[in-house]
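Each letter names a residue; structure tokens follow underneath. Both lines appear below:
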Amino acid sequence: MKITTYHSPNELPPEIKSRWSYPEQAGFLTSLDWFRTLAATGIAEDFEPRIYVVLTNEDAVAAAIACCFRRGERTLRSLTTFYSTEFDVHAPYSAVGIDRIADAFAAYVASERPAWSALDLRYFRSESPFKAALSRSLEQHGFSVQEFFQYETWFESIRNADYKAYFAARPSQLRNTVTRREKKLKREHQCEIRIGRTDDAATEALVRDFITVYSGSWKQPEPFPNFIPALTRAAASCGVLRLGVLYVDQVPAAAQLWLTTANRTTIYKLAYDEKYREQSVGSILSAELFRIAIDEDKVAEIDYGIGSEPYKRDWMTAVRRIVGIEAYNRRTLRGLSMIAIRQISRMVRRFRRVAPAKQN
């Protein structure tokens, strides 16, 4: 197999762009559409994308792996940030096994000059076959590899259920709160929910209202203010956007951004204005978007995104782990020093666990 590298998603040949774009790549959050948006509007200026395309000997596209690095450093990173929810290899050519792709990538990375001192690849699902194969291959090509835990993500499998049955299975406190607060809100105020799906003026207005709600919420301001508008446009052009805004007396009070593919929806971002906290506007909007996902989009899975906030457990019943791998090059001075630091840290932690027991 052969590997070619590119410094921008825009440099990729048409065939690779086509194979890696949604819906050819079924997961929007691991598609070229996602990585192009992230590279253009969601990473610091001193980071440079580096995309590895693995080709068969017949020049068929076997895989694409989106990475990046900070200029002046020799750490190769996954093209992921705090905006990411998952990461993996895109492997459209089924005749080539994941083990062969991982070995080809590891061998190529190990041969690059100047040498990479480390790899920092994040947001893998713990069960990812590529993650496991890559860890083994990197060890064989001169790296010391360690997996580390990052986050949990809560999700729900929807098995032939409609929204009414799904909601009936939620905790009674959640059901009572949503039902009671929604009735009270509609009785005392003008209440409306608008949903944006397409790239048009109405959705652009919803994006502005989303940002207004976000600014009035408990959440920190976006460090990359162009990312969310760019993401909504990309998602709308792919047909996966579900942008919901709840208005109270024509004022935006709650907003949520969901990304819905053929079989799965991801609750990507949500917020509500603190002034409307007691009205449970966030939960009311959630209920409507759950209904749309289950009854209209008929998804097989709903993913609540990164994090284990307690409120997610009211809506979800299953959890998966998101992990990363760090690999240090045993053939570079910096790689060896990082290995030594990691071993010392382990010894210190082990000593701290054992020391109190000895004192007793």
Q: What stands out?
A: Residues 2-150+321-359 form a domain with the Aminopeptidase fold (CATH 3.40.630.30).
